[in-house]
Amino acid sequence: MDKILNYINGELVEPKSGNYLDNYNPSNGKVYSLIPDSDKDDIDAAVAAAKEAFNTWSKTPKQERSDILMKLADAIEKNFEELVKAESKDNGKPESLAAHVDIPRAPANIRFFAGAILHDSAKVHEMDGMAINYTLRKPLGVAACISPWNLPLYLLTWKVAPALAAGNTVVAKPSEVTPMTAYLFSKICIEAGLPKGVLNIVHGLGSKVGDPLTTHPDVPVVSFTGGTVTGKHIASITAPMFKKLSLELGGKNPNIIFDDADFEKAVSNAARAAFTNQGQICLCGSRLFVQKGIYNKFREALILKTKKLTVGDPKDSNSKLGAVVSKEHMQKILDKIALAKSLGGNILTGGEREILEGDLKSGYYIQPTIIEGLDFDCEVNQEEIFGPVVSIIPFDTEEQVIEMANSTKYGLSASIFTENISKGHRVAAAIDSGVVWINTWLLRDLRIPFGGMKHSGVGREGGFKSLEFFTEPKNVCVKI
Ligand code: NAD
């Protein structure tokens, strides 16, 4: 059986304890590899290696850092097929999705920041001929980069790339649920000649690896993407240590369809927003508000479209949905569907575990599910489910839908579908979320600051914001 290894000081190493955890393939429910069950000793070794490497990496000219990162991106592309298969096997998502979204985005992330670091600039503030002020930005040191299981390599590189480009060294902790692409990435780093200690990857359980990492005295900065509960815990232990912290957390995103929307575009985007990656994207539109004038027609069209989405073998290019990530997660989603029914929700389509044939019969498949008839403020419409489940809710007026959309504790993203430009802009401004799309969903420009409001996060990542986050500003005032 394949053994995943930690990547510390440029080498692939066993966890110091010698202990391993099982790694499951969600498509068939079978163990297919072993994950290091790392602990504080492994983190101490990784942080020490990163601290040592910082002395050189932080002083390496930007052009050289950029060249090394570009080589890393090229090396990912050389290993494209292997990464696609690994991401799908580890996570359960269709290979076609990994090939179109997750894996191409990893080199795109790296190239973006390798380029951005060469084109960064600073402002000068002049004081009426008396003085000038300018800001120097210095890397912070060893950065902790913690990523979740839903887009494993995509989100790992989204953090690691700006941290390294800005001159920090990194200790990364991928999710223990989907460690394989991070492991392959560590092999790619070795192949591409990344200097030793610049990036270290330690695998293992959340708090057993995460707590020693986030509280390590030699780690001044933590970039975390994951659940709101974990984010709250990390904030509570790192704030008294005055660490710099970025939190990208959960969402319960509204998708708002007005009567005057382009109907076909709105239906197909609503299905995409609800079910892509089995609904396991933080930006998924899990609350679908549809204006009453088109509600019945829209509901029927969405049901029809959803019924055509094949749940199947992730390796099959006809499968639109694969397996959800784990048995525990599948049960959590099924429990939420049961809760929805107990609250009076009517299942319009789906609602059950899908049992596939042969080797896949023990896989974790759930039918794409539409629920109608729930109050906008009930638990199912307020808490993140993170599965292929969407709740459809009718509305009358713009004011009413804004109030319902803003009723959750989250504020990550929203979509609005209308052909009325003024209304689109007006509603976008009124929705409490860090990202709003008008007439589309999940269109990402890497230059744009990304992140959530309220319990969906603190800080923004993306573009020059990430380079700012991973550097400390020092203001210099010169009397002239
Ligand atoms: P999670 O919070 O359980 O785990 C995320 C990561 O944190 C994993 O690597 C985990 O091992 C680690 N972790 C757990 N406990 C820790 C601790 N005490 N200290 C440090 N690290 C710890 O989240 P998940 O289930 O992997 O991911 C799903 C969640 O992530 C959803 O809520 C989703 O909305 C959110 N998410 C948010 C974004 C965003 O950009 N806002 C993107 C993707 C996913």
Number of domains: 2
Outline type: globular
Low-confidence stretches: none
The third-level CATH topology of the largest domain is Aldehyde Dehydrogenase, Chain A, domain 1
Distinct small-molecule ligands in the complex: nicotinamide-adenine-dinucleotide
Strand content: 15-25%
The top level CATH class name of the largest domain: Alpha Beta
Determine Rg (CA atoms, Å): 23 Å
Output the CATH homologous superfamily of the largest domain.
Aldehyde Dehydrogenase, Chain A, domain 1
The SS-based structural class is alpha/beta
Judging by the overall fold, what is the CATH architecture of the largest domain?
3-Layer(aba) Sandwich
Distance between the termini: 68 Å
User: Order of strands across the widest beta sheet?
Assistant: 15-18-19-14-13-21-22
The main pleated sheet reads as: 7 strands, mixed
Mean pLDDT: 97
- How many strands in all? 25
Roughly what percent helix? 25-40%
Description:
The chain has helices at 40-57, 62-78, 80-91, 95-119, 152-165, 180-192, 206-214, 228-238, 263-275, 295-307, 327-342, 379-382, 398-405, 421-430, 463-469; strands at residues 2-3, 6-8, 11-13, 20-25, 30-36, 124-127, 131-139, 142-146, 169-173, 199-201, 221-225, 244-248, 253-257, 285-291, 346-349, 353-354, 365-366, 369-372, 389-395, 410-411, 413-417, 435-438, 453-454, 457-458, 471-479. The chain folds into 2 domains: 2-249 and 456-479, 3-Layer(aba) Sandwich (Aldehyde Dehydrogenase, Chain A, domain 1), CATH 3.40.605; 254-446, Aldehyde Dehydrogenase, Chain A, domain 2, CATH 3.40.309. It is globular, with a radius of gyration of 23 Å. The protein is α/β, with parallel strands linked by helices. The mean pLDDT is 97. It starts with a strand and ends with a strand. It contains 15 helices and 25 strands. Strands 15-18-19-14-13-21-22 form a 7-stranded mixed sheet, sandwiched between helices. Strands 10-9-8-11-12-24 form a 6-stranded mixed sheet, sandwiched between helices. Strands 1-5-4 form a 3-stranded mixed sheet, with helices on one face. 40% of the residues lie in helices and 23% in strands. Bound molecules: nicotinamide-adenine-dinucleotide. Nicotinamide-adenine-dinucleotide (NAD) is lined by residues 146-150, 155, 173-176, 206-207, 210-211, 214, 225-227, 230, 233-234, 248-251, 282, 384, 386, 412, 452, 457. Nicotinamide-adenine-dinucleotide (NAD) binds at residues 146-150, 155, 173-176, 206-207, 210-211, 214, 225-227, 230, 233-234, 248-251, 282, 384, 386, 412, 452, 457.
